[in-house]
Amino acid sequence: MNANEKIYIKAYNIYVVEDNFTDGETGDYILIADNNYQPIRAQFNTIDDALKAVCDEFNLSFKVHDWEYDEYNGNFIFSILVDKNVNEVSSDDIEAWEQGKKKLFSCNVTVTLGVCNIRNLLADEIKSWENQ
Question: In the prediction, which pLDDT does 53 show?
């Protein structure tokens, strides 16, 4: 990227689904948030900064190694176990979940990033606007 380019969040969605230790994700997917509901309007210098902004917005911990890039769809994705209130869980919660003593949910985050070129308006663009 050059000095005039910034990264922005084109789209994101966060959904949860019940996650059973034995059977995996079961039940209905519930959309928690997306860019239509709660847009994140900001510009970032790095991919990490943009992904961290999504995590920060929803009180999810950010660890760069938790994210994967899906080349086929062009999205960054990660998943984390949460409780029914969409709070991250402890290792004790995960142990109880593995033993079938606690219900946990998979919180799945998908983010699409883009790059925009930051520049001043050109005189011709302003003139065109003025002459509408």
Answer: 95
